[in-house]
Design brief:
- This protein has eight helices and six strands, in the order ααααββαβααβαββ.
- By secondary structure, the protein is an alpha+beta fold.
- It folds into two domains: 88 residues; 106 residues, no CATH class.
- A hairpin with a 2-residue loop joins β1 and β2.
- α1 crosses α2.
- It is flat and about 75 Å long.
Length: 253
């Protein structure tokens, strides 16, 4: 868990942690203004949400929901005039058809492939600056066979794009692999002494982050050659492919 990003404290350079930080600041302002009005139960829940969000990045969505549910009503009550106006609007049932219309329109656009006439309004795709989109496309075009070793945070994407024709050595479902396997993987990822033991017999292709230390070391190894390179990832294959009898069974998915 010490080496997995989602279990570590959030990096506030990203947009999601920054939004969570804004919620925290608003929450602190509400506590200062209406601390006694929160009550013990809400106060403890607020502390839990703050602790959960700051302790691990994966907790930010739940912590944010809790913060909004806790501080939202208190924040509105600070402006009694606004609160009265919202009560009148809710009781009059005005304007409620617009959200329903927006939802129906959004679903209709999604059902037509994200298009409205000749305009393409919705285009769901993986960010090619974060995921090895071009590298995987190259693997498919060149019919490069696995098992494929990539950083664990790319494993799910590779499975999505390449399964069942190719398999990966590891992905981010870490509890599937066991402690010994993960320790060996982390040793390789950090290029610590004995890093190359993890590679022996496990992978027929490597897809590594271009800026990683591991990619720099592999590029100098006579046992591997560069097959493809772009701004995000480098694809390596063995200079002399191992036979099936020499390759160890893959623990990957």
């Amino acid at each position: 868990m010490d080496h997995i990003d989602e279990f570590q404290s959030p990096n506030f350079h990203g947009i999601a942690p920054q939004c969570f930080l804004a919620l925290l600041l608003i929450g602190f302002a509400v506590v200062i203004a209406r601390g006694r009005g929160l009550g013990i139960a809400r106060g403890l829940t607020l502390l839990f949400a703050v602790y959960a969000g700051l302790s691990a990045s994966r907790n930010i969505p739940i912590a944010s929901i809790l913060l909004v549910l806790l501080i939202g009503p208190q924040f509105i009550e600070l402006d009694t005039h606004f609160s009265r106006r919202m009560t009148v609007v809710d009781s009059a049932l005005r304007g409620h058809s617009w959200p329903i219309f927006a939802i129906i329109l959004t679903l209709a656009i999604a059902a037509h492939g994200g298009r409205v006439g000749s305009s393409h309004l919705m285009d769901a795709h993986f960010d090619p600056k974060r995921m090895p989109v071009d590298a995987v496309r190259f693997l498919q075009q060149q019919n490069v066979r696995g098992p494929i070793l990539s950083p664990d945070y790319w494993g799910g994407y590779l499975i999505y794009r390449l399964y069942p024709h190719d398999r990966v050595v590891i992905d981010d479902r870490h509890d599937f692999y066991g402690e010994a396997f993960l320790r060996s993987y982390v040793t390789m990822l950090h290029v610590d002494p004995g890093w190359d033991e993890f590679l022996k017999g496990r992978a027929a292709c490597l897809v590594l982050a271009r800026s990683s230390a591991l990619a720099a070391i592999i590029a100098k190894s006579p046992q591997w050659k560069v097959l493809s390179s772009d701004n995000v990832a480098i694809v390596f294959v063995p200079t002399e492919p191992a036979s099936d009898s020499d390759r160890a069974p893959s623990e990957g998915i």
